[in-house]
Amino acid sequence: MNDIQQKIIKDKIIDTIEDLREEIEELKLITGVVAPDRAIGRISRMDAINNRSINKSVMDNAEERLGQLQYALTKADGDKFGICESCGREINLNRLLSVPEAVNCMNCGQ
Length: 110
Ligand SMILES: [Zn+2]
What we know:
The protein has helices at about 5-30, 50-75, 95-100. By secondary structure, the chain is an all-alpha fold.
């Protein structure tokens, strides 16, 4: 991976972190962390009660992914960025573009 590619993936990680933070904030509104009357956007049109357990698991997944992205970001300026933590081979660039938090190659999985 060259410097330009590394910067593109790093920006992608930062963008995805921002998107996820917004998503988590919205999900917090409808999972009852914040009063439902403060719900905003398209999610306010959803049935907050029926969807609560689904939303909770979506939020858990989003928070888990956020953690993985923050970990990837700590590595984003290093020499080992884009190198599989398991086998030491380069992670496919297309994989990193779609899954910027990936620290393993396609073969080693996540
Ligand atoms: Zn690997």
